[in-house]
Amino acid sequence: MLISVIVPCYNEEESIPLFFQEMEKVKGQFAGRHQFEYIFVNDGSNDRTLDVLRELSASHPTVQYFSFSRNFGKEAALYAGLREAQGDWVTVMDVDLQDPPELLLEMAQLLENNADLDCVGCRRVSRDGEPPIRSFFAKQFYSLINKISDVEMVDGARDFRLMRRPMVTAILDVTEYNRFSKGIFAWVGFKTEYLTYKNVERVAGETSWSFWSLFKYSIEGIVNFSEVPLSIATFAGILFCLLAFAGGAFIIFKTLVFGDPVAGWPSMTVIMLFLGGLQLLSLGIIGKYLGKVFMETKKRPVYIIKERSQPRK
Ligand code: UDP
Ligand code: MG
């Protein structure tokens, strides 16, 4: 079996050598049972990542790299890697060693022993070393998305997984521009089993995700895999119409029976503000989806490759 290892890298000059060293150790433990090819994707880094990759590729025939013309994001890097991978089995790994390479041994074993298994994924069961507030919101995100979307996203599941070729082909057939890989992995189906492990902190460098970027990423996930927010406006609209009818009937009744001594403007303002806010919110939701449609219809490429390693024979 040829196993392709796809590694997206964004400003990872320090982590790449450490990652490669660890991976080579793991490769040794496979004792020649499988061949490996590495596909590093330089996602428009502005440190020495590209130089490091050039050197690595020059000295190791199993290492290939692609370099984007700018930062396109991890999703684009993953997609590029999947498209270029030649392997019968394909794995996707973070370069910061947060996806422990030694798990690959166990993953490969599972695939070898279960012919009907298509994919072995990894799940963090702890989030040690992560700010508690981030873990809290991550949990809320998974419970929400699993309620309002048809695809089942596993809490704590990483992108780290070992897939057979048919699943890779299926993922490549999903050619949408707005890529939310966690959703796509779940959406294509196939039989997946999860290994669990405790969170590992990154070896070097810094995470490129701030709280705000994670928040935006979770909105991407929801908008790409659920249409429920679109119906919020409809339901709120119906609810407020009913309330308005009830309120109107009540006012008519009250005026007829008791007359109309004072007119209350504060309650009026509050109601107007509330309804105005709700309308803007609904418009915003619709706008978000419309924006997605806009980007999809442009059919822009997901990434642009500026430089690649020499093709190998
Ligand atoms: N990454 C990337 N492009 C980006 C951001 C990140 O290719 O725009 C890569 C990064 O080099 C790493 C992986 O994606 O290999 C995960 O990134 P990070 O460790 O920053 O995320 P975290 O583990 O904190 O979720
Ligand atoms: Mg990381």
UniProtKB/TrEMBL annotation:
Pfam families: Glycos_transf_2
Keywords: Glycosyltransferase, Membrane, Transferase, Transmembrane, Transmembrane helix
InterPro entries the record matches: Glyco_trans_2-like, Glycosyltransferase_2, Nucleotide-diphossugar_trans
Protein name per UniProt: Glycosyl transferase family protein
Enzyme class: transferase
Any one GO molecular-function label of the UniProt entry: glycosyltransferase activity
Native species: Streptococcus merionis
Keyword Transmembrane: yes
Gene: yfdH_1
Gene3D superfamilies named among the record's database cross-references: Spore Coat Polysaccharide Biosynthesis Protein SpsA, Chain A
Record-annotated Glycosyltransferase 2-like domain positions: 4-168
EC number: 2.4.1.-
Segments passing through the bilayer: 232-253, 265-290
